[in-house]
Amino acid sequence: MKALITATTLALGIAMPAHAFDRQMTAALRLCHDYLWDVPKYADLPNAAISVFPGIFDDQSIVVFWNVYWDEPTTRAAGNCTIIDGALEGFEDYLAQE
Questions:
Q1: Is the C-alpha dihedral spanning 17, 18, 24, 28 positive or negative?
Q2: Which helix (H) or strand (E) holds 37?
Q3: Could you give phi then psi for residue 81, rounded to 5 degrees?
Q4: Eight-class DSSP state of 68
Q5: Per-residue model confidence as pLDDT tens for the chain (98 residues)
Q6: Residues 6 or more apart from 28 whose CB is under 8 A from it?
Q7: Model-level pTM?
Q8: What is the largest CA-CA distance in the chain?
Q9: Strand locations in 1-98, DSSP E?
């Protein structure tokens, strides 16, 4: 019985931090994805044109990598969003010319 209680306690202790990570990462992915639709050159593209991927993270910030790939009109772009404490603080389009 003690072994079952110990195993359950360990499983819950491991699962809770992972679940919090999943929520934070999912929120960051959604925030970046939704922001891309506010960028005028991507605003009329369908949902399938925009992809976001988990990137670098620590206790306070998450970098989300994104790409846009669509035909008619042909659109290709890539970059990242930086989310700090749950708010989008940075956006970079790697292909933008300055």
A1: positive
A2: helix 2-38
A3: -120, 140
A4: E
A5: 555 454 445 455 554 455 556 889 999 999 999 999 899 989 999 989 999 999 999 888 999 999 999 998 899 999 999 999 999 999 999 988 65
A6: 54, 57, 62, 64, 81, 83, 86
A7: 0.74
A8: 66
A9: 50-57, 61-70, 75-84, 87-93
